[in-house]
Amino acid sequence: xxxxxxxxxxxxxxxxxxxxxxxxxxxxxxxxxxxxxxxxxxxxxxxxxxxxxxxxxxxxxxxxxxxxxxxxxxxxxxxxxxxxxxxxxxxxxxxxxxxxxxxxxxxxxxxxxxxxxxxxxxxxxxxxxxxxxxxxxxxxxxxxxxxxxxxxxxxxxxxxxxxxxxxxxxxxxxxxxxxxxxxxxxxxxxxxxxxxxxxxxxxxxxxxxxxxxxxxxxxxxxxxxxxxxxxxxxxxxxxxxxxxxxxxxxxxxxxxxxxxxxxxxxxxxxxxxxxxxxxxxxxxxxxxxxxxxxxxxxxxxxxxxxxxxxxxxxxxxxxxxxxxxxxxxxxxxxxxxxxxxxxxxxxxxxxxxxxxxxxxxxxxxxxxxxxxxxxxx
Length: 377
Ligand SMILES: *Cc1c(COP(=O)(O)O)cnc(C)c1O
Known about the structure:
The protein is of the alpha/beta class. The protein folds into 2 domains: 13-248, 3-Layer(aba) Sandwich (Aspartate Aminotransferase, domain 2); 250-376, Aspartate Aminotransferase, domain 1 (Alpha-Beta Complex). It contains 13 helices and 13 strands. Helix 1 (13-24) runs antiparallel to helix 8 (237-248), helix 3 packs across helix 6 and helix 9 runs parallel beside helix 13 (361-375).
């Protein structure tokens, strides 16, 4: 059987975890490996501050607190995304204003954002689907004009960029995921990226249960106390040790994934030119990270038989998000601004193919062969 995903193993994970347990005797958060991970993100992606979190979900929650989102505020986001993108803001009492996506990248349509802005709007949350960037120049210009925060959900965008700038470093805050389904992983984990140093101290406090514990450890205050709202958003050193091993091999993991992605593309483009399927579109100024390879079938019915066909051959291909605006909680906490021209329609056609670091040529050949077989019938 060919799984949809196999979590990446780079090689040094166990060695570093052993080091944490047997040598460092430090398994709670913010030890040496967490610091190494912070420095790696900061220097690799040229960002003022990075803080590891227990998940991207929690990084988004931290961002919502840092944006000072209050009950009654509105936050603009796509409906074609993971629940955490919007839950983080709903937890602060915000209403989500969904806007339609572009059919080519499945990202928020930057040309529809301005019409969704009201006097209550506080933030825009672009999601870089499949590690392909949203139109950040346009989004940042709108945010500047209306004085709004931009929180980039770059859960899938680690190692991608937009006009040479790393995803997650363009908005006020960016969030990464290191869940096992993402390109670099520690099981469950994430990071928040902070562009402006004026938010760093508050971010450290929110992440440490609302206390100034980080300042205490740096010797900047002689005791630590409760100073703000917060939660426990820092991961254990065991997770950080695992993650650091992945960071060390980030270029190799990225190159390997890109090779697999390009192979799918080249092998399937004939089916696209014959009009059977559609392949992902990557805008020229966006460097993606091969987070995902998807195809679009004709419609929902064809997609269902496509998934079943591959499943019978032992290949796990899967669909993705059910649009949030039509979900039970979406109806309660949000509204769709404008017309849902593409969100529902395109989400029903999309299917993701297996893609992971350790995928073999033999497995990929079989997948490609079976897809061609499906469309020859
Ligand atoms: C995976 C993902 C998340 C959540 O990441 P966790 O680390 O599992 O919390 C949020 N947003 C998007 C777009 C994702 O793909």
